Known about the structure:
The chain has a single domain, classed as Small protein B (Small Protein B, Chain: A). Helices cover 32% and strands 37% of the residues. The protein contains 4 helices and 9 strands. A 7-stranded antiparallel beta sheet has the order 1-8-9-2-7-5-4. Strands 3-6 form a two-stranded antiparallel sheet. The longest helix has 24 residues, at 132-155. The radius of gyration is 19 Å and the shape is globular. The protein starts with 8 loop residues before the first strand and ends with a helix.
Amino acid sequence: MAIKGREPVKVIATNRRAGHDYFIDERLEAGLVLTGTEIKSIRDGHINLREGYARIIDGEPWLVNVHIAPYEQGNRYNHEPMRDRKLLLHKDEISSLVGKVRQRGYTLIPLQVYLKHGKAKVELGLARGKHQYDKREAIAARDARRDIERSLSERR
């Protein structure tokens, strides 16, 4: 039984490359418009976010280049794996994103897909691309933290 006030969330897929390739400035949740076989395939965990991004076309947000594998038990009405999928956002969220995405260097990327109360949601990140030297600095900082933790654990 779920604790009252808490929302049961099941993470299906995460975009682990996003943190390496981008600075994430803002995060927001959006719903997905899916067909029957797509949601079944997502529940099985057959989704890839690696090359995906979101675009705003004619005032509507779309999730582009995200691969959802065809459902194994699907018949001839199975879905197209790489089709563009509409995102569900409030009008004020869309207008805010339009202004921010028009700024130089910003893009919308999917960070994770999860099920919340049985409905598929995607977490979008407003991101700026990292340069090569930013990536090297992040790797050096991570290695330094790991060495410090290792030396502290050896002292105990």
